[in-house]
Amino acid sequence: MAHPENSPVRNSEFAVALLVAGTFFMENLDATVITPAIPKIAHSFGVQPVDLHSGVSAYLLTLGIFIPISGWVAERFGARKVFATAIFIFTLASALCGFAHTSTQFLQTRIFQGIGGAMMVPVGRLSVLRVTPKERLIKAIAALTWPGLVAPVLGPPLGGFISDNADWRWIFYINIPLGLLAFATALRLIPSDNQSEQRPFDWLGFLFVGGGLFSLLFAAETLTQAQTPVLELVISALVGVILLVLGTIHLKRTPNPMISLDVVRIPTFSVAVRGGSIFRMGVSAVPFLLPLMFQLGFGYTSFHAGMMLMAVFAGNLSMKPLTTMIMRRFGFRRVLLANGILNAIFIAAIATFTATTSPIIMCVILFIGGMNRSLQFTTFNSIAFADVPQNRISAANTLFSSAFQLAMGGGVAAAAIAWRIGQSLQPNFSPDPVIPFRIAFILLATLALTSLLDTLRLNPAAASHVIGRGK
């Protein structure tokens, strides 16, 4: 049954999407906001900054372990109950992070916070997908996309601003009123689902997939260290690959898999997971490398470097009102291909920056790149669930969330690898610190282009029913 544009049903659907987007923003922000505050946090604990690296990585690694079981937990206990509980855990853990007085307490509370985030993000998206009809999917997905774009860009400058002008603990305290508001709103807006599925828990699948994601994300984290422990990196990466291969074999054979892989046979979902993951790796590397190039290559302060990222943020927001219109006008396949090429061009354009390049020119390039990034992100996310039947939404969402988390962690690894390749290719006669960054951005642009190979196989009319029926 069709509902008017401003009907209570549609307003309720969009309100749920905005609520979930807000929780996504909190979860994504807390992955990056503490990075510039690490020296002051370490000083307050009486330890060296390097000793707090585990406090940063523990959050991301916990997400990797527990996201794969989110679908089973939501089916077993109900999405509304799990989502609200996850918000409460995340909020409580944020308060405990602020109350921590030792590095050990901080590590423990960050793990606790990661457990809440691991349930909050995928179960929240599942709630949106369940209440949103296909013809209004684009609008809902557009609302869910902005946190993944904005939070990694806003996180470092916001964390630096808070730690420079207030106690670092306020980085976590600001989550408390937001979390309590989200908790109360979730209980009011998320529909109750009394149907629970008594499916046995797949312990072996959890061991393989959770362990594999943990190992690969751990390998990605080691690449961010100044002195990468090579043996540790190789072993963790190898273990991760082996566990995921064994997990894939197990999930295909067991009658009650933790994650059903049947949804991979859906072409649009497959493109969003495979090509979309490669794209996310490429674009998530940019906010990591760009401030480093501005600081190490051009001599910018950390605050100045962070503020330059605001051009990317502005581009992201400017594209938002246009994404639905563009997708409906040109279709998913053409948008992914054309915009994907533009996205790669503007990543490569960053390699032309020099210390004498006009800040206005750099901001224009970053602004347009932010627009491309926003459109591609939204298009991949919209097409992911366009053809997934309602009874497979939970399985698709769990697999999508796991791939998403691995890709975002892989982006940091891609950035570090690209930069180190740039270092190895730098001529001995040229000590210019910018050269490795230039090579890195060209490599990342190439990586972004490879994400389009899957898209080439898409039917030109793929998911047209989602575009054509919405208003």
Short précis:
With 471 residues, the chain is mostly helical. 75% of the residues lie in helices and 0% in strands.
What is the element layout, followed by pairings?
Elements lengths: L7 H25 L5 H8 L7 H14 L3 H8 L1 H21 L3 H29 L5 H29 L4 H4 L1 H15 L13 H20 L7 H24 L13 H31 L4 H7 L1 H21 L1 H18 L9 H26 L8 H33 L9 H16 L13 H6 L2
Note the main attributes of this structure.
single chain, 471 residues, mainly alpha, Growth Hormone, Chain: A, 3 domains, 19 helices, globular
CATH class of the largest domain: Mainly Alpha
Query: What is the number of strand segments?
Result: 0
Distance between the termini: 14 Å
- Beta-strand fraction estimate: under 5%
**Overall number of structural domains:** 3
Individual helix count: 19
Radius of gyration: 21 Å
CATH superfamily of the largest domain: MFS general substrate transporter like domains
- Residue stretches low in confidence (pLDDT < 50, at least 5 long) are none
pLDDT averaged residue by residue? 82
Which fold name corresponds to the CATH topology of the largest domain?
Growth Hormone, Chain: A
Compressed to H and E, one letter per element, the order equals HHHHHHHHHHHHHHHHHHH
Q: How much helix, percentage-wise, in residues?
A: over 70%
* CATH architecture title of the largest domain: Up-down Bundle
Question: How does the helix and strand content classify structurally?
Answer: mainly alpha
**Biggest sheet: strands, sense, closure?**
none
Shape descriptor reads globular
